[in-house]
Write a structure and sequence with these properties.
224 residues, mainly alpha, Four Helix Bundle (Hemerythrin (Met), subunit A), elongated
Length: 224
């Protein structure tokens, strides 16, 4: 297993405090960010990454304008992914194997079938991902939207049904701690190539470009 990032270690520590040591109960509000970061001995950036992980896993919930709280469902969730990290890693590997098989073909079909409006939407959403990366912002939703726009343009009902799994894999890649910068750099370059082929309506080129993108993600995340 690769060495855990500080954000991953912090997420595990928070998980232990809540789910194992019961220092906080469902419905409790977490201390403010400054105090909690000091208590855990980490930066606020690292703490935010850890909190985001626990929110995505359902242990915490963000209430706009009020703060971060322990989920009311916390007592009913038995495994937040920290008790069997090898299993979690195996599931991520399986998701990316699915993407490597599925998404290049989806890109080819979308390039062939997209209406002018759908093509414009794909390109606009690809540019939104690029802007997020350039600005150093969280690109999770923008990245999901880009891949979803491609899948929608296939006009294939069963491909659409795979979107929740694709979204999960995209989010996992974006949140992957230690390789974030490399993943972001690869994403910008790969997406630019994919969009170039879409603009040309080069279906085979789009398929190959998406396959390259999947290979880069798997390689950087060490999932081979």
């Amino acid at each position: 297993m690769p060495k855990k990032s500080l954000a991953q270690q912090t997420a595990e520590r928070l998980y232990t405090m809540i789910a194992v040591e019961h220092q906080m109960s469902p419905g409790d509000k977490l201390p403010n960010e400054v105090h909690l970061a000091q208590e855990l001995g980490v930066s606020r950036t690292t703490l935010r990454e850890a909190l985001h992980t626990l929110v995505s896993q359902g242990l915490l919930e963000v209430r706009r304008g009020r703060g971060t709280f322990v989920s009311q469902e916390a007592d009913h969730i038995n495994d937040y992914g920290f008790s069997d990290l090898e299993t979690v890693r195996g599931q991520l590997k399986d998701l990316f194997e699915l993407r490597r098989i599925f998404e290049p073909s989806a890109a080819r079909l979308a390039c062939q079938r997209a209406t002018p409006e759908e093509m414009s939407d794909i390109l606009a959403k690809g540019e939104a991902v690029d802007r997020c990366i350039r600005a150093g912002l969280d690109r999770t939703q923008a990245d999901r939207d880009f891949h979803a726009a491609i899948v929608r343009a296939t006009h294939n009902e069963y491909m659409m049904r795979l979107l929740p799994m694709i979204n999960q894999a995209v989010a996992s890649a974006v949140e992957n701690g230690e390789q974030k910068e490399q993943l972001a750099e690869d994403t910008r370059r790969d997406h630019a190539l994919i969009m170039d082929f879409f603009q040309k309506r080069d279906a085979l080129g789009a398929e190959h470009a998406m396959a390259i993108h999947m290979h880069h993600s798997i390689d950087v995340m060490g999932l081979e």
